[in-house]
Inverse folding.
């Protein structure tokens, strides 16, 4: 099983259909609207715009487990992302990334590893589903480490 076999809803409702991304490179990021790291939405959107045509999908996963920094309902989160950051990459429903109610998506990303430490932690998933990199929340989406991890996975 990989993240592409997990059922999760899209933020606006209905299935996010992760299986359709099986041949893509996916950067999964737990996001929040009221965090000091929230401006990373802009960098995530830039990354998505730059590489989407080569097969990169940025997948934002709202989570309210860190200091209650994503308290809004789905419509509020979606509006915030579009109005403030012009987000066009897909967003999922709000889920728990840690603890007993950890969503199966994060069970697949983390396995037996350490919990997610804060909002905007990033997981890079190769085509087929292998998790190939994990980036600290403070690592900006445009950081050279992120770019050099993504580029070799994309088709030329």
């Amino acid at each position: 099983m990989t993240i592409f076999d997990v059922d999760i809803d899209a933020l606006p409702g209905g299935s996010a259909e992760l299986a359709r991304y099986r041949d893509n490179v996916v950067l999964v990021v737990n996001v929040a609207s009221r965090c000091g790291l929230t401006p990373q939405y802009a960098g995530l959107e830039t990354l998505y715009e730059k590489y989407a045509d080569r097969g990169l999908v940025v997948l934002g996963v709202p989570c309210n487990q860190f200091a209650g920094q994503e308290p809004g309902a789905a419509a509020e989160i979606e509006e915030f992302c579009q109005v403030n950051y012009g987000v066009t990459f897909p967003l999922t429903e709000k889920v728990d990334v840690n603890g007993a109610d950890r969503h199966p998506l994060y069970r697949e990303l983390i396995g037996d590893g350490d919990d997610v430490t804060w909002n905007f932690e990033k997981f890079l998933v190769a085509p087929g589903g292998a998790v190939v990199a994990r980036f600290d929340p403070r690592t900006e989406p445009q950081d050279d480490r992120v770019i050099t991890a993504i580029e070799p996975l994309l088709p030329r």
